[in-house]
Amino acid sequence: MTAVIILGILGFIIQCIFIATEHKEKYVGAVILKGSASVLFIIIGLYAIGFSKQADTARLIVIGLVLGGVGDVLLNLRFVFEKAGQKIFLAGIAAFLAGHILSLAAIIPMCGSLWLCVIIGAVLAGLGYGAAQPVLQSLVMQIEPKKRRPVAS
Known about the structure:
mainly alpha
């Protein structure tokens, strides 16, 4: 368990450095940092398989994490390869979607009441968005208008 905590803290630190690096528009370094953080959460998932009583479920979740990591890297590569930015962005979104579908496929069978799980998930997502919105808004406002980049070009 100590290893998971250490890896989690290391991933958090790398993620913070990634944010600062991306803000400085050093996109190659940012991609490397984002990929490194993604590898750490995949390692945590692989480590957790050993403790899972439902190995098939855990494997689906780890595959979802891998696809999420691929999505992370692709979404940041769009800034490195600007000419192919939209295609890379769409590939990243597709990887994220596939990862989320696999994670849901793993988790939904464990729900006693699907509707209750959906309602709880929607409420938590709304609370998370509501809590993050002021922070995200202040970050966006700090970026000079000329530096703002469209999500897909």
